[in-house]
Structures are given as structure tokens and as C-alpha cells.
Specification:
By secondary structure, this protein is mainly beta. The strands form three sheets. A four-stranded antiparallel sheet has the order 1-10-3-4. A four-stranded mixed sheet has the order 2-8-7-5, with helices on one face. The protein contains two helices and ten strands; from the N terminus they run βββββαβββββα. It has one domain.
Length: 107
Amino acid sequence: MKTIEKKLTPGEWKLHIQEAYGHNIISVGIKGMRDRTWPLFRVDEKSFRERHGVNDQGELREDGPALLRGMPTSYMMDGLKLYLWPAPLNEWVLHIEAERKNEAAAR
């Protein structure tokens, strides 16, 4: 099991999690001021696109979640890219639990 923590910048909703290479993401959460981890809910790509909005070419809009900011409640994974919704308003810490792919297959 591997724990990855990454400090979030307000308004940053697209993250590249290089440390997760070769791992399966088990859970994602936000650590607040009291050092408690609040779990985020994983959504599929279709549901995320409905919440976020797309442009005419069907790509995620750059300004989509910037209109709505607050505490992220859900996320989508696309390879090593993690997308948060809504965009974070404060400098929280992203807390990720991951395990190696071969450990997950052994179960």
C-alpha cells in the first residue's frame, strides 16, 4: 500500500499523479484543517462530463469547473490524470491510497 499526498492549488482541477504509475488507486480524499480525510466519490467519464461540461469538439471545457468552486466531492481518473469536481477553493491536501498492480491481482 502506498500513500500519496499532494498539496492542491485553489482552482486547480486537473492533476497529473506521476507517483501512481504502476499502482491501482484504491481511494482518494481531501485532508482538511483538522487533518481529517474526507473521501471523494469516483465517477465515470460520462457522469463527469455531464457535471463539468464539454465544448463543441466533445472535450472538457477549460473554464467548466472554474465557475463552481468549493470542496471537491468527486473525481475521475484517466490514466495518471486525476480530475476533481468542483475545483478546490482552498489549499487542501489530496490524499491518495494506492497499491501495486501485481498486489491487486494476487487477491
